[in-house]
Design a protein that fits this description.
The complex is a heterodimer of chains A (157) and B (515).
Chain A: E1 6-11, E2 15-24, H1 31-34, E3 40-44, E4 48-51, H2 53-63, E5 71-75, H3 79-87, E6 97-98, E7 100-107, E8 112-119, E9 131-132, E10 138-141, H4 145-148, H5 150-154
Parallel strand pairs in A: 2-3, 2-4, 3-5, 5-6
Antiparallel strand pairs in A: 1-2, 7-8, 7-10, 9-10
Chain B: E1 13-17, E2 23-26, H1 28-33, H2 38-43, H3 47-51, H4 59-67, E3 71-73, E4 77-81, E5 86-96, E6 102-108, H5 110-172, H6 179-207, H7 212-216, E7 219-222, H8 223-240, E8 244-249, E9 255-258, H9 260-280, E10 287-295, E11 300-307, H10 337-347, E12 351-354, E13 362-368, H11 370-384, E14 393-398, H12 402-412, E15 417-422, H13 425-432, E16 439-443, H14 451-460, E17 467-471, H15 478-486, E18 488-493, H16 498-514
Parallel strand pairs in B: 8-10, 14-15, 14-16, 16-17, 17-18
Antiparallel strand pairs in B: 1-2, 1-6, 3-5, 4-5, 5-6, 7-9, 10-11, 11-13, 12-13
The chains are: A alpha/beta (157), B alpha/beta (515).
Chain lengths: 157, 515
Amino acid sequence: MSEVLKIETILSDDEVNINIIGQIDEDSNFSKILEISKNIYILNLQEVTLINSCGVREWINFIEKIPKNSKIIYTNVPQIVVEQMNMVKGFLRNNDEIAAFYAPYYNETSDRIVSILLKTNQIIDEKAPTMKDDTGEELEFDAIEAQYFNFIKQQGS
Amino acid sequence: MNNYTLYDTLFNAVTVLDTKGKILYSNHYFSILFKMSPRVIKKINTIFELFNGKGEFPNAIFERVINEPGSYVSEEIELQINELDTQCTVVIKFTSLEDKNILVCFNDISIETKLHSKYRTQLSELKNSHLQILQADKLATIGELSAGISHEISNPLTIAAGNIEIIEVLILEEKLKNEDLIKDSIRDVVESHNRITSIILNMKSFLRQQTEEEEEEREYCNLEEVILDSIKFTNPSFKKHNIKIVQNFSKKDIVALINRTKILQVLVNLLSNALDILVEYKIKDPKLEIEIVRNRDDNLLEIRVADNGPGIPTQDKSEIFKSFFTTKAIGEGTGLGLSIATQIIEAHQGVLLLEKTNIGASFLIQLPSIEIQSYTQSEIMQRARTVSKNDTIKIMVLDNEVKILNIFNKIFENEGIIFLGSANGYDALEVLENINVDLIITDYIMPHLSGLEFSKKVRELDINCPILYLSTESNKGILNRDRDELGIEGIILKPFSKEGVLKAIYQALKNKKEL
């Protein structure tokens, strides 16, 4: 049995904040979220450690059960989830939004890859924003922009 | 400019190598598979560097595709991805391109491998749970029948106690010369002991949990004996409530190929259900009828268990075979009996039905005839051993004794032989009209149709395969008589060994081939 997915929820008037922690795979159970009924679901994926193709299937099944007139806002989306969002149709619904996601940048001096949290509205014309490290050195975006930011096109207005 | 950018649209990880293994191109999914950015991949010179320390690159296939242009697929390869300790399983396809470079396509089957392993584990757990449920059902049945069983045991115990008292009195009064009375008393004690032992052994045998191998085993059994065992089990309870059991066995020698313990469980279940209903509804002149029929038209063996109770209510008829459905009060029934019975019968390629009746409830078990069952089972077993169809030979064995059929079943198990067992010459002839066999072994002395009469009828059907007799030393002379007239190839003498049987079979087949 894989590492059990943990789901933490914090309810407020019109919205629910949900932390998804662990692996999204064939054993994942999202029923705890489906028991809640709110207009806005804020999904924090910061601590998702793995997502495989079976997990994607479970995810899509779950997302389709959330009322269409409710909005899902994704935040702190890790690279592994961004890659799935880019590959799989139906991962994002039309009126859902990705508020913030992690993108890989490379520091040539230290030869290190760093994950930087970007806001979706920072991406203009599929161009990665210029980022600098603590020393002021410019970092290089370490993926193919057109492919990495493809998911943004899937978002509705 | 090359055409490799077309591969950007593929969902598989793809790279193009030159004949030295240098990476000329890789797509986005190659980057995702190896968890390396395009910048890092650009720094890697050859594919061998990429695999270094991560997995075994299929060098032999790479060499082959260079020297013999075409498409080649590797075996499954385990890859260690990056420093993340992530393991993945891939299959790699190498294809030579027109420009002499090599297209390498990676198929990531990690999920399939993991799910398969999970499936095997869960299936094993399910099988264990199933065995436990079967066992629980047996225990529940014993529990329900315990009142009758203990009543049945107390009777011989009382008789034994009474007789021992008689002997004690005779000893005290020094009347030991009354030998007849002493002998009678001792005999009664022994009989009581035997009866109790039989009841206990019956229970032990019923309750014994079969191993996984035993669960799958089938043996030739006399169906009447199995039914009588089930009646023996439940009879104490029926007697206690004055319920009459009517046995209607039209033929005495009906043989079935079954897991004896499991079919016993089904029968005890049906009898036990009937008992409960007849007792609960206080039926006047309660009766249970058990019938065995050989349905020749459909090649079936049928067992009918019918009571004269109130019958199954219409609204329950479609529910009674479902798991956990019960009409009993909570704690009085598991509701699993009929669903387990159904599973057992279906595992025998049979059906368990509730028949339409005017009075009471009538359950019908239909099982395929032993000829069909043995043929099907044997063929499945040989296929599982991936024995080529051309290598298998089909042999029919006709013998009215079930233990002989079971011996042959064991002999042929691992020999690539498809075995059709039959206990009745007329049934065997019907099967031979539809299935070609390579050889027939027939017992010589049988009721209804002897081996000689059977062989004559086989030849009348224009079936020319070799026939071997099965008989004792005293009948050895018949071979000379029947060899010319009926083409009897030989005789297997009882008692026989596996080696002797196989030798006779292969000799007969060889003789036939040479003709």
